[in-house]
Amino acid sequence: MKLQSKLIASALCLGALPFAQAADFEDFGRVVRVTPQVEQINRPRQECRTEYVQVQQPAPQRSVGGAIIGGLIGGLAGNQVGGGTGRSVATAAGAIAGAVTGDRIDNANQPQGGVAEQAVKQCRTVDHWESRTSGYEVTYDYRGHTYTSQMSYDPGERVRLHVNLEPAQR
């Protein structure tokens, strides 16, 4: 073998020496038990419904213009009838009759007050509890020793372990 080949082989062996004595490696442990860690979460929500209630409707404002004009016309018409105190009575009766007639004609198409139904929406907030798995408590066996660890997933029948060996300190 040439000297150059020997030097390269020696360099490679020396370079691989730390890897041959590495104290970190991966192995597997046997899973003994997996317990899901469940937490309760409240997510309140709105529940609404529509109810129909009866509401008293106020009577609309009546117009007085028809009564005033009717009273004036009735009074003028009554003033044309009779003489003396009879004329005064006829004027008053004509004014009253004209006012009543004018009011009825003016307010004939007005809606009347009464009871109507009105929709009322009523809402309330109710609790809504949900169960959520936040992780897993995993108990596993590795070389005759039992260990427990919290994990974010269920590892199945075996768990991959990162083993780190260190010399004991005195």
TrEMBL record:
Residues 65-105 form the Glycine zipper 2TM domain. Transmembrane segments: none annotated. It holds the Pfam family Rick_17kDa_Anti. It is found in: Membrane. GO terms for cellular component: outer membrane. InterPro entries: Bact_OM_lipoprot/Surf_antigen, Gly_zipper_2TM_dom. Residues 1-22 form the signal peptide. Keywords: Membrane, Signal. Its main location: membrane. This is Glycine zipper 2TM domain-containing protein. It comes from Rugamonas brunnea.
